[in-house]
Amino acid sequence: MKKISVAVIGAGSRGMNAYAPYLLENPNLGEIIAVAEPKEEKRSNFKNRYNIKEENTFKSYEELLSKQKLSDAIIIANSDESHFEPTKIALEKGYHVLLEKPMSNKLEEVIKLGQLAKKHKDQVFMICHVLRYTPFFSELKRIVDSKELGDLISIQHNENIGYYHFAHSYTRGNWRNSNETSPLILAKSCHDLDILLWLTGKSCKYISSFGCLSHMKEENFKENMANKCVDCEVERTCPYSAKKIYLEDDVLKASLYAVDANPTKENLAKAITTGPFGRCVYKCDNNVVDHMVSILEFEDSITATFNLSAFTKDCTRTIKLMFSHGEVGGDFHKNVIEVHKFGDNHHTVIHPKVIKSGHGGGDFKLMEEFMKAVSSNNKEVKTSAITSVESHVMAFAGEYSRLNHEVVNVEKFWNNQIKRSYFTIGE
After folding, report:
1. What residue stretches are annotated with the Gfo/Idh/MocA-like oxidoreductase C-terminal domain (predicted)?
2. Rounded to whole angstroms, how far apart are CA atoms 100 and 34?
3. CA dist., res. 58 & res. 52, Å (int)
């Protein structure tokens, strides 16, 4: 297999720690040869870790993409609102592209990226919907497709965000305000909508969503609290204490890089004293919902409910699939699937294969498929950009439903958006 050269735009936690490490462990498949990152410390850390030459280290994606094509492929893992332009330019320059989800925080840009994928059909253009690559969800897909429990009738799917993770990412962190980044159902849960599409194998016809920001807002700020956790009288009894989450608990190890580029205990203590991650959760500029439920109808009358919530102890996904002749329940974090066949007093417990990487092994399995696809020039991948547009449209339709209290016809919503697009990219 040909060895692939790769550039990376965005040296944050996903670019630095989720995808690029695959090539450190599999140097025979490819190597990272360039990076673009505006934050100096992160850029320097990435350069040193992946042994990037100085001339291939850039402060912005504009600088990197202004050069002649530097590599075979490019991973785009910068912020949501900045996905469209570098992806468009990279495709036009002939790069194979792996784009972090969501594709964009603007629906018209998602539509255009789908059109670009069709235009540049000779290039691999994948989206990082890593859950399709996990052994856990792959086993659920196998059960659905096998028909061993009959026809799939309905799904209950929960995204248990975890109170500490929600406080980190969606109250204090980068995805706290939909005016700046993305609504929660897009930023966090386009993964889950994609999984529902994949498991059912059907398009979504209707979606209706409900939810709001109920708890982490200024109305719940009390007199004996403080703007910063380090100054707060009730910090020791508050589960959302930044001191507990960042200095005492191990639950957010993978996310500490967002707090400080070199997350030593000393640097983290300084960061929560002076920076945004030390703010009281009731005194932040957040506006994304902290709980949301969606009801979905797919083709062939398959129904689903999708519930996302900040108010859970564990950070996991749980799911129940109901068939005409049995049911299946699963816990993603515990890596357990239980299969019950009607009329049989016994049940089967499955522990899918454990793969060492983020998202239950999905991060590395996705990278494996991307590298193989680029090497063999195979466009038949699980999460092509063309395929991934649908789950993004569903997310925007769900948010529209939540805000307007309407049941949304997804096909009409999608078609209306295409008509409103500023331009259409030719075939």
Report:
1. 141-394
2. 17
3. 10
Per-residue pLDDT of the chain (427 residues; tens, 9 = 90+): 678 999 999 998 888 889 999 999 999 999 999 999 999 999 999 999 999 999 999 999 999 999 999 999 999 999 999 999 999 999 999 999 999 999 999 999 999 999 999 999 999 999 999 999 999 999 999 999 999 999 999 999 999 999 999 999 999 998 999 988 899 999 999 999 999 999 999 999 999 999 999 999 999 999 899 999 999 999 999 999 999 999 987 766 667 888 888 888 999 999 999 999 999 999 999 999 999 999 999 999 999 999 999 999 999 999 999 999 999 999 999 999 999 999 988 899 999 988 877 888 889 999 999 999 999 887 789 999 999 999 999 999 999 999 999 999 999 999 887 766 543 333 3
Domains of the chain by range and CATH?
Answer: 4-129+361-383 (3.40.50.720), 135-216+284-354+384-427 (3.30.360.10), 229-278 (no CATH)
